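wait is this the right file?? whatever heres the structure
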């Protein structure tokens, strides 16, 4: 069965990814009420690692070849080490909805890396879209800051977007070799190991954390992390990269809705304008800007 020209299972996987990743921003905000940014990152990764380890044992998942270990280590470092810690630190001062907008610039960076390393080319419109995306991201960061100074938290979230965009391009050939679930599992394990530096403080704070916060951490690990990254990798391995990342444009709108319903967050007017500019930029990059 086809939906919008894609296999229905691929569309279902992308739809699940959009909802799960959009919900993660609000869950992170809840986690930050009781834990530090690094502790939230470790908690979600540890839960995801445990879930995936149980599955790996049950199916006797193969381990990566020695020659692929550098790619696995780099993927885990960027997408699950740096990304989650930078995103969480950024969300101390940036709202859940605005954070999703800033992460929504990742497709722009993905297009740049694909141009540089995968031989894909951008038209002039592509570079116009890239400039618009950066302008929109800047407006969001100003809207979430004080006056007209850039909020450092917004810059950290932009760093997270760059890191995950490199991961999207880097993982492509390995998804074909190992499959979506195994390669994602390897990368999450690496990110968890890197994040163990936050273990002592996580253990110290866990005893006094509210039950609702602990449930949010469990949700983050099982659904947006273990399930969400696997569903996205599954779809990413079965369609062109540019079309797969285009579905990420839906995340900010869903994230703002979830943050409004869950947290009662009302976005700043400048953040809304910046979000529209940023999302217009990524649409231009991946439509008018792509060589046919």
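ok assuming it is, sequence goes like this
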């Amino acid at each position: 069965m086809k939906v919008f020209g894609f296999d229905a299972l691929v569309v279902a996987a992308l739809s699940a990814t959009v909802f799960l990743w959009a919900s993660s921003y609000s869950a992170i905000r809840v986690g930050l009420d009781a834990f530090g940014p690094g502790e939230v990152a470790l908690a979600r990764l540890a839960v995801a690692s445990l879930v995936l380890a149980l599955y790996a044992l049950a199916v006797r998942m193969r381990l990566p070849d020695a020659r692929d270990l550098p790619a696995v280590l780099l993927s885990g470092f960027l997408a699950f080490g740096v990304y989650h810690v930078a995103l969480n630190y950024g969300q101390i001062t940036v709202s859940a909805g605005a954070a999703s907008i800033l992460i929504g610039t990742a497709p722009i960076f993905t297009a740049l890396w694909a141009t540089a390393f995968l031989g894909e080319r951008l038209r002039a419109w592509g570079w116009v879209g890239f400039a618009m995306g950066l302008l929109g991201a800047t407006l969001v960061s100003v809207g979430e800051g004080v006056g007209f100074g850039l909020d450092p938290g917004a810059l950290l979230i932009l760093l997270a977007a760059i890191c995950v965009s490199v991961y999207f391009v880097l993982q492509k050939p390995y998804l074909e070799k190992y499959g979506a679930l195994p390669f994602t599992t390897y990368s999450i394990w690496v990110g968890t190991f890197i994040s163990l530096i936050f273990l002592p403080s996580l253990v110290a704070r866990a005893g006094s954390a509210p039950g609702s916060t602990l449930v949010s951490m469990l949700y983050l690990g099982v659904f947006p992390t273990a399930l969400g990254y696997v569903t996205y990798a599954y779809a990413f391995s079965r369609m062109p990269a540019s079309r797969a990342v285009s579905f990420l444009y839906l995340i900010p709108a869903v994230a703002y809705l979830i943050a409004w319903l869950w947290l009662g967050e009302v976005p700043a007017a400048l953040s809304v304008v910046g979000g529209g500019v940023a999302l217009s930029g990524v649409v231009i990059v991946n439509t008018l800007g792509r060589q046919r």
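The chain has one domain: 2-286. so i think its the right one actually
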